[in-house]
Amino acid sequence: MSRLLGKVAAVTGGARGIGRAIAEAYAREGAAVVVADIDGDAATETAARIAVTGARALAVRVDVTKPAEASGLVDQAVRAFGALDVLVNNAGVIGRVDWLDMTESEWDRVMDVNVKGTFLCGQAAARHMTARGTGNIVNICSNSAESTYPTTLHYCASKGAVKTLTKAMALALAPKGVRCNAIGPGPTETALSHGRLDVASERAATLAHIPLGRVGAPSDLAGAAIFLASDEAAWVTGITLFVDGGWLTF
Ligand code: NAD
Predict the structure, then answer these.
(1) What count of other Cβ atoms lies within 10 Å of the Cβ of residue 4?
(2) Can 26 be counted among the known catalytic residues?
(3) What is the reported pTM?
(4) Mean pLDDT of 173-177
């Protein structure tokens, strides 16, 4: 339980769902954790839950779509804990609407958080990490990068962009000693997925597409997130590791 001992990790969208599970897992592995979220109260609550276990945790309210807030997140992590070793670009949003009815503002809302937020926070962290010659970034992608739905076309496109961005970031950062990888979760029980999973027929259709026979729990993503952030993955960069119960076997 010490694979991230002495490391400092920031998790965007860390207040709940998959981000919270990753933040808690990192803390159990010895990292100091920055819980960064647009919901400042929920971030404070999650950081407090982590701190009672004896780990170091800081809550930061951040909107990942704002350049000054993205760089402010890195500054606050460095001020509190001395450096930033790991950034998890996890903040994400979805919307469900037939794409023929999709408005420009709905398209922009999803692309801004999922793609621009990953770019902005990734760039701010990469500037700090490349100056130190060490560190790594984990982007949270989705099975929707490969497997599309007509009612979440913008979300699928955004996650396809995250997958490609991960490879481009890895290539740019490798000569400077910094790695970048992604995790592609399959359907996981969180607030984000409930629009689909709360409808019995859609949950049944989802389950029928998962060979391992169940929807994921947020904690199912923790092992991959620890591995990619740790020195065990020292020779791994540019990949998207799908953790999806076998969804993409179809
Ligand atoms: P969630 O809604 O439970 O959590 C998302 C978090 O992101 C929330 O705490 C929210 O406040 C935060 N957030 C939203 N916009 C933000 C912004 N502009 N700035 C900072 N924080 C912001 O969702 P989740 O399911 O835990 O999603 C986490 C990631 O996993 C997302 O990138 C999502 O696309 C991805 N994912 C989820 C599933 C799934 O089935 N739940 C599947 C594949 C991928």
Answers:
(1) 23
(2) no
(3) 0.98
(4) 98
**Residue 7 gets which letter from DSSP?**
-
Q: What is the pLDDT of residues 92-108, one digit of tens each?
A: 999 999 999 999 999 99
Q: Of 23, 134, 42, whose CA–CA distance to 88 is shortest? A: 23
Residue 104 one-letter amino acid: E
Beta bridge partners of 240: 182
The CATH architecture annotation of domain 8-243 reads: 3-Layer(aba) Sandwich (3.40)
| Cα distances (Å, whole numbers) of residue 64 to 75, 143, 217 | 14, 22, 24
Give the strand pairing for 57-61 and 8-12: unpaired
* Residue 211: per-residue pLDDT: 98
The answer, yes or no, to whether any atom of ligand 1 lies below 6 A from the CB of 25, is no
Q: Any idea what DSSP says for residue 38?
A: S
Asked if residue 58 has its Cβ within 6 Å of ligand 1, the reply is: no
Parse the chain into domains and list their residue ranges: 8-243
